[in-house]
Amino acid sequence: MYNAHTMKIGIDTFACDSGKSGVGVYVSQFLKRIPPSSGARFELFGWEYDRFSFGAAAEGLEFIAQCFVEGTTANSLWHQFKYPEFSRLREYSACFFPAAHKRLPWRSPVPSVGVVHDMAAFWGTRKTREHLGVIRMILPNALRNLDRIIAVSQWVKQELVELARVKESRIDVVNNGVDHSRFYPRPRSDESIVLIQPFSFRRPYIIYVSRLDHPIKNHVRLIKAFEIFKDRTKYPHRLVLAGADSHGAERIKEAAALSPHRGDIFFTGHFPAESLPELYAGANFAVFPSMYEGFGLGVLEAMATGVPVACARAASLPETAENSALYFDPLDPEDMADRMVTLSSDRDTAREIRALGLERARVFSWDRCAEQTLNIIEEAAV
Description:
Blueprint: E1 8-12, H1 22-32, E2 41-46, H2 50-53, E3 62-65, H3 72-81, H4 83-89, E4 94-97, E5 112-116, H5 129-144, E6 148-151, H6 154-163, E7 171-173, E8 193-196, E9 199-202, E10 205-209, H7 219-233, E11 238-242, H8 249-257, E12 265-269, H9 276-281, E13 285-288, H10 297-304, E14 309-312, H11 317-321, E15 326-328, H12 333-345, H13 347-361, H14 366-381
Helix pairs in contact: 7-8, 7-12, 10-13
């Protein structure tokens, strides 16, 4: 059990996407679980608007607005040149960086703990060659200067060792959790329409929850696999793609517009987090074709909701799902379509995958994640 004394811990909310991404979910869930009587004083610092983004989760915690020039470059410079003085003036016992893979100071004058959710920056899919070179030069050194690093999966830990040359002994693996009070099986109604304001979804549908990020999230191949699935089965299923536009979203939407089954492909844009469990629950099954995930939070949320899952045999996804999903080659739309056909036509397999997914999801807990993380922060601050 976490047991702090009179420490003062700063929590960096920069680069946490205002709670609208996997990292944002992580931060919100962590903040909710800081013990009110821990004996330590926690305060947040970040963009002024994040005072409201994380306010409900961080009720009672002080928020210090910093870096009043917007933009990634300005914020990176703030971390390099302003953060050291800021952390000294605030007299922090330690600083916690929940998005250490995205934003870090070169070195912290107080003990520091960072969470690495992925090493996607090394993929280079969204960077110029020059920008990629800067990332590969700066990020590993900044990571190595952290006192402790939390990796969200064994996959990410191995990448930290191989790509950033971080000593294995300084890395702790603490898996993400799932909010079982929100993501749980719901009774299946016979209604053909699922109403989730302001949307209505006609069943049956297949769900993929992810930002529209091309090519790393692999939407274009999923659309091709969906075409193959529709041509083979003649089933009335629709494909619901829930996620905000990101890099290359226009390529994904173009692929959908050119599809012969474009009338059955539905984009929701950013989907309200509070309604996400209902969206999962209405689906016949979920497909996660991403070529790179540091953990696979969406896979876990779908399984916890009682939705059978098919996912890519790539990166951390097999570690997260283990034997509780059907796997496919993310580069092969035919293989992807095969698994979609199986989950839609083989009821016994779908029921088995659903049961295995529910069992697997029970392994993961935000309570456990927060407790382990708080212990690591305490150890670094001592």
